[in-house]
Amino acid sequence: MNKLQRARRRTIAWITLPILLIAVSVYGLAYGSVSIPLREINQVLLHHDDSTYRTILMDLRLPRVLVGLLVGACLAAAGALLQGVMKNPLADPGIIGVSAGGGLAAVITMVMLPQLSYLLPVTAFSGAFLTAVAIYLLAWDRGASPVKIVLAGVAINALLGAVMNGVMVMYSDRVQAVLPWLSGGLNGRSWHHLEFMAPYAIIGLIASLFAIKPANLLLLGDDSAQLLGQRVELQRLLIILLSALLAGTAVSVAGLIGFVGLVVPHVIRLLIGEDYRFLLPLSILGGGTLVVLADTVARSWFDPIELPVGILLAVIGAPFFLILLKKRGNFG
Predict the structure, then answer these.
(1) End-to-end CA distance of the chain
(2) For 292-308, how does the pLDDT look when each residue is reduced to its tens digit (9 = 90+)?
């Protein structure tokens, strides 16, 4: 892919993704167990209206769509940053154990300390954060190479998964309340969830934009980055912790949703290249779009059953990802 082709694709992506984001958000507001005409959405959002549509939109769908946008944006940004600092397109909060750390902390809270369930977002974020620190320390040996971090993350992920299963077996009488959360979903997400996660998500997403320059320099290789005056290990640690903040924020509200942090940045990279000035913001837009679209499909296409969005993304996303890999040459 030459410079002209790359520039053309970037222009198309900058035009297309915001339009898709708006279209998918409107689709998420309009469709569900009750379909709402577009003129009624406009009436409710722009004018005072006491109809049933207002209750559905303002109390149920609008906060759910906004939470979905932030969850997708956080997961995609976390995946894009991790793939960059680890120089591995398979790096993802779910694969290296950061999401599992948040998940284990949340499960322990829900089944062992249900009286503290109101602290669930805080415990999930803390679990993800501590897991990221543990992975980095385990991988440290006069420096932490990307390969060591990935290997340590995979091992930690397996360990946390085993502990999580053990907790669920020991407290099997309480596991029913945990299963929907483990599957990943946005059912019942309200303004309360949005109010909690929005500060963390917005701070994390804004901070991720400041990681663009170091992420681009790390792509040159550790030696080249050091020659340019960069403190490679410190920057890598800070970016990993930032990714933990983003992933933990998403996990605390939506549970374990995979695929977004892995595939969205990868698809964007195949389309427009490695440059984080374009890759990161476009991944943020793509992640929000994907999660809202998948959630709307999960709750409207299978009525009266509502599928957890995490399951739908896994079922559709895995084959899609394999096809993309198979056809990668067509993007390059």
Answers:
(1) 5
(2) 999 999 888 887 788 88
Instruction: Give yes or no for a cis peptide into 304 (omega within 30° of 0).
Output: yes
**Owner of token pair 């949703």:** 257
What pLDDT score does 62 carry?
Answer: 93
* Residue in the structure block whose two tokens are 């500060």: 199
Amino acid identity at 320: F
Q: What is the DSSP string of 115-162?
A: GGGGGHHHHHHHHHHHHHHHHHHHH-SSS--HHHHHHHHHHHHHHHHH
Query: Contact at 8 Å (CB) between 74 and 204?
Result: yes
Are 120 and 110 in contact by the 8 Å Cβ rule? The answer is yes
Q: Among residues 249, 201, 187, 184, which one has the least CA distance to residue 61? A: 187
Count of other CB atoms within 10 angstroms of residue 263: 23
| Residue with token string 């708006």 | 22
Q: Under 8 Å CB-to-CB from 258, ≥6 apart: which residues?
A: 92, 94, 99, 184, 310, 313, 314, 317
* pLDDT band at residue 1 under the 50/70/90 scheme: low
Question: Containing H/E element for 206?
Answer: helix 191-210
Confidence label for 328 from pLDDT (cuts 50, 70 and 90): low
Q: Residue 188 and residue 77: Cα distance in Å, rounded?
A: 24
d(CA 254, CA 168): 19
Instruction: Report helix, strand or coil for 303.
Output: coil
Higher pLDDT: 211 or 124? It is 211
CB 82 within 8 A of CB 92: yes
Residue type for position 233: E
pLDDT in tens, 2-29: 778 888 888 999 999 999 999 999 999 9
Q: Cα–chain-centroid distance for residue 219?
A: 22
CA distance 61 to 190: 9
Output the CA torsion sign for 85, 86, 90, 95. negative
Residue type, 109: T
